[in-house]
TrEMBL record:
Primary subcellular site in the record, as a coarse category: membrane
Protein name: ABC transmembrane type-1 domain-containing protein
Record keywords, A-Z: Cell membrane, Membrane, Transmembrane, Transmembrane helix, Transport
GO biological-process terms attached to the record: transmembrane transport
Gene source species: Halobellus salinus
Localization terms from the record: Cell membrane
Transmembrane intervals: 27-50, 120-143, 155-179, 283-300
Protein topology in the membrane: Multi-pass membrane protein
Organism superkingdom: Archaea
Amino acid sequence: MSSGADAGGRGVEEKRRALRRLRRLQYLLWVAVLGVVVGVTYWGVGFIGFQAGVVAGRFPAMYEFIAQGFFPPDFQNFTVYTKENEITGLRAIPASFRDWGAPIFESFSSERLSLVKASLVTLLLGFMGTVIAFPFALVLGVLGSERVTPFPFNFLFRGTLSAIRAIPAIVWIFLYIPIGPPSQITAVLAIGTDSIGNLGRLFTDDLEEIDEGPIEAIRSTGASGTQTVSFGMLSQVSRSFIAWTLYILEINTRIAISLGVVGAGGLGLMIRNSQDLFQFQRTAAGLIMVFVVVLGIELVSSRIRARLRPGEHDAKGVVEALRDLANPGKWLGISTKR
């Protein structure tokens, strides 16, 4: 009995020593990784000529520039009505809601630029780019999965997605110059092309993680390959695909703003025009509209995705989401539940 107990004790002690060695190796690995990150960062700072002291010394001037030049925001370009009547500052916002918002609807149909019309253009650029990208991303994403296309032929489609994804949208809009100069049309094409690569990759990754059981069940009924993909695979990831598409829509809204700076229209174009004219108070108004548009699309998208993925996070309404923004416990990670 004693020899058996001694053998068992030695076995436990050996496992403890093995665990301690493994833990030491993990610590050494993390230290090595941290050392490499710090070393590369230090080298990169010198390579690009980044001078932290100079940057820090210019922050007071930047603060003074923003405080004096950007405030108070001037919303004179909020609608065509406020522009024509020279209603400036924050007064332009309530003035635009007179007659049940008639100035806003008039601005949508006007040829003249306004912040509300630019916001609509930005949303439409992101939305149409996402819609155009979805069918192409779905086809390439499905064919890129090894469950559908055998290895190594699936890498033809994966490689296509990687090649598309390697070129950002702001470069795609210049590649489409033979079609036309940077404009709303080429912006939609650029956003759509960029989204094909990003969305298709997400679709492929989701298909690689689905359960094999439903697929085998569909195959056992004598279903064709198309039926197996439709009912055995896509049925498992349909909600996830919609959620990923909404997430890409959020990103595309931001991309549409950046493309506007190079002439694609929308809020980005209005911000650039006001900056070129040194009208920084109107620039501040445009930046506020960017915040409103991006926050609005994120709240709507996150609400829908919460419904599609009830187990991922609690579904909250817009009021609850806004209330959480003012809750310091949420920012500090302090739970208020008891």
